[in-house]
Design goal:
This protein is α+β, with helices and mostly antiparallel strands. Helix content is 34%, strand content 17%. The C terminus is likely disordered. The protein binds one DNA strand through helix 4 and helix 6. Belongs to the type IA topoisomerase family.
Amino acid sequence: MKILCVAEKPSIAKSISEILAGGQRTARRSRAQYIQNYDFSYQLAGPLGRCHADFTMTSVLGHLTSSDFEDRVRKWHSCDPFQLFDARIETYIDDKLKPVAQNLKEEARRADILMIWTDCDREGEHIGQEIVNVCREVNARLRVKRARFSAIIPAQIHRACQNPFELDVRQAEAVDARISLDLRLGAAFTRLQTMTLQQRVPDLDGKVISYGPCQYPTLGFVCDQHFRVQNFVPETFWYISVGLERDDNNVQFKWSRGHLFDFEMAVVLYEICVESPMARVTNVKTKPTQKWKPLPLTTVELQKSGSRLLRLAPKKILDIAEKLYQQGFLSYPRTETDQFDKDFDFMSLIRKQVADPAWGGFAQRLVDGDFARPRNGQKNDKAHPPIHPTAHAGNLQADEKRVYEFVTRRFLACCSTNGEGQSTNVDIEIAGEKFTTSGLVILARNYLEVYPYDKWADSYLPNFQQGEQFMPSYCELKDGQTASPAYLTEADLVGLMDKNGIGTDATIAEHIAKIIEREYVEARQDRGAKYLVPSDLGIGLVVGYNQIGFDRSLTKPHLRRETEHRMQMICDGVATKNEVLQDSIMQYQEVYIKAKREFETVVQSVGRYMQEQPARAIRAGRPAGGGAPRGNRNNNDDNDDDDDDDDFGRDNGQGGGARGRGRGRGRGKAGTTTKARKPAAPRGRGTTTKGKGSTRKDPDDDDDNQGPAPKRPRTSGANTDNTGGTAPDCQCGAPAKQLVVRREGANKGRPFWTCSKGQDEGCGFFEWADGCENVATAPRRTTSAAQNRPAPPLRPPSRPDNEGPQCSCGMPAVQRTVQKAGPNQGKTFHTCSKPQGEQCGFFEWDDPDGQAGDRGRGGRADDGGGQSGDCFKCGQSGHWASACPNEDGGNNRGRSSRGRGAGASRARGGKRSRGR
DNA sequence: GCAAGGTC
């Protein structure tokens, strides 16, 4: 019996034939470059029979066939792009791969059985089908079998060979559908966009404006983050900082409330603390802790951590890994698997690293008994193991050396044990306020010795005893500001794409490179990190499509996810390929028709953002394909006018999303659009955006760079506010939703508009809904750390007079009375009803004329008796109660005045300026 | 001159 085995790539053919042949094989060169044919004999004992069979193992080079449209529509101007949705698609073998197919035919002629050894995933099944089709052309009687394996290790390979399955036709058909849909959608939209925009926007002459179902969601991620950055409004918060100098160490305690956005409440709590500043240690807990070793390395993780740690572009990392793989130094670099097979031979691989001068000693210790099995992740593509070194490489240079070192150290770290340490937490209370600090003693670094990319450092904590009391060295009221989110790094983007199913491990890096190549996005270096900033063209496209508004946005991942879901339906037998194609094509046609009809919106948007010339430079015309009417009847009100130029001019004047900035930056910058406006440089924590007041204060100031947030936005009329106004559209193109500020602070109760899609998916749009400019601080915009925190539940804009307030937990607050001697003694206030330690921090005076309850609105005075800025004890201004000179003995509470001098006085100033 | 997915 003669059996022809075909793998997806030469390396797999080589390693599998090595295993099956047990060293007894002959290699023949094929007519195709890179491909060898391996002959050997193999003893079959399973369902295929019990005999000595003659085996030949060869391979292809990935997909054998290509697809393109029939001749009739292949030329760009040969048809309306709409016809591409039902044009015939031809499948053919590219000239470059003809020798590969020829080799298959020659080998298949003499074979009885064709055994497919492609990777065990959907694409592998499709490649298998391509191989079958070619081989059957010359040998119609060929029996086809499919070897299934999840790792290239002898036991599995022999088992796969003895017990082959059938080829999974459904999976192959699912890929067929994917190929057809991607081609039709990509080509139709690319032609529509390119031909129309080239015609209308002079600066785009000669540029391909491609659309791809992976390219656009990738661009969408970059733009969404840009909008978040642009829309960010910093907000001031306050917190109490407590410290103690002990044993030559400055021990800092963190406030359990974190920080507060309500200045008055922070002051009240701070005053309570400095009134009775003695700290009591309520809990000292020491426990063992671990620093977890990393997971085995997948392609996506290699690109993410490599980009972050080695500062190389994801595509560059993958290219280097590919080269190292071909040189035999690394395992196959395209894998989704983060768990090693249970039979994986770790020890022989670790032994190969013993010779290395840098990590050889560590490898030796693993061999000598320190080895521990790597952790198992959640992913397994059943085709390739995690990326690991397969040989020691001592002579690599530059980036290749760094990538190899990273992979090797990661592998050795996986085979080591977690870092071990002892952590100590100390909780204290000052006047009922809780603070905490912690220390760490590292007992054994373990994997950290070989993996310097992870940081874990001792932090010494002096001895504290439960129940002990001490006077803090300082107790300060400090202020800070929420920080703008940063632009996405390449690592962030790889993570987002992976999470949302955009691209595969092998293609994610290519999609990022593609949107950079198309000039939709610019990779900008800033202090050692590379950030992705959308260009004017990229923003214009995204905003334009979002303004059109589709059920499934072209710039969000949903459409791709749906394609993925439909492919799975084919695989599961729930739908046939033809059903899926029919439904999907019809859906895409609808999207295309809407896009084409309203393409003027995209033209205007791109023109506006790329506005290197006055609006008139946008040539009159119509979308490619010659069908769409001008006038945009289906567009929003601003575009109802029948004159393109007027539309454009008025857009600017009314200050829509892009307008203010567009006009400002356009002046005198003709011919340099993309570079004329640079979005704000990436920011790290601690930097601030332009103040919210300054960006929104003057509606006639068109020169400010206020980002896409509309001052007086166009409205869709879908949502209405409580005064009958209509909802503005956010950058997502959807009507914004109205919420009410719930958090304690000067703006509590104010209605505002925000993106209806929430914090994670939304664009970060924000605008007050009461028509006023900022009274004080806007609702907090998110920082990257804060983004994952759920917003507190919102309550209705106003509450009936007979109802008590609700606290931030959503519970009715309880009324209490100030017991402490001072000007507020006897006053009532509402606070969270939960026991101490579980409280949400809610605080509100009951007296509407009271000090803190007023929240700084409506004629609140800075001066005058009894205001909160005055001493609680004597009523005089200029000092705090805890340093009251009129108090007997002049007790200044030790060194706590440090805080009053620095932090507190700043904080007071902050409050005063808000009141004006 | 279009896409995305394999691989060299």
